[in-house]
Amino acid sequence: MDGAHPSAAGTSLEGALPDEAAAGLYDVIHRRRDVRAEFTGEPVDRAVLRRLLSAAHSAPSVGLTQPWDFVLVTDGGTRRRFWEHVQSERRSFADGLEGERARRFAGIKVEGILEASVSVVVTYDASRGAPAVLGRHAIADAGLYSVCLAIENLWLACTAEGWGMGWVSFYREAFLRELLGIPDGIRPVAWLCLGPVSHLQDVPDLERAGWRRRLELEAVLHEERW
Fold first, then answer.
1. What backbone phi and psi angles, to 5 degrees, belong to 178?
2. Model confidence pLDDT, tens digit, residues 134-154
3. 3.40.50.720, 3.40.109.10, 3.90.550.10, 3.30.710.10: which CATH number matches 32-128+138-204?
4. Model-level pTM greater than 0.85?
């Protein structure tokens, strides 16, 4: 299980991408980074932004409910208020750290809210397609998983376009709901920072900072049973 494309082993599967296209896809997957410090702040090309959002909107969803909405945020005042909230939550998290862990976290940048060209808030509407959502009757969170698939599509598309994307997770949902006027019953899932970047890091930020290391595939691989 070395992750090679089937044709690399001399086997051509019906419908498989040509070697060059497949190699490009795997390259995008492995180059994707959670971007925080590399945004240039350049104005966005609206045509590129629409392509990115179209890729997100093309994600699979349980019962074809497409339970996501995308809120574009460019207003400086709104972004500043959210940034201040994130800094407060960062301090709250840092207060629970000690010693070497605290020292390492102090050097980690957790967001690029003010530096990124645009922010996209992705939400989840559990009522879309309800009450009979095909495929959600036994797994209530299947709709939420669908939203995460849309976010991953957006992330990969950003990488393919030479943009960066960072997922900000230091916030309270209630604060973000009030800040953007998100209706009751709609859950804000992610504040995403998007835009052109100077470069993408070869090694993810948290690995470079010594916070954690990526596990080898063999460490998480099981066959037949756990």
1. -70, -40
2. 999 999 999 999 999 999 999
3. 3.40.109.10
4. yes
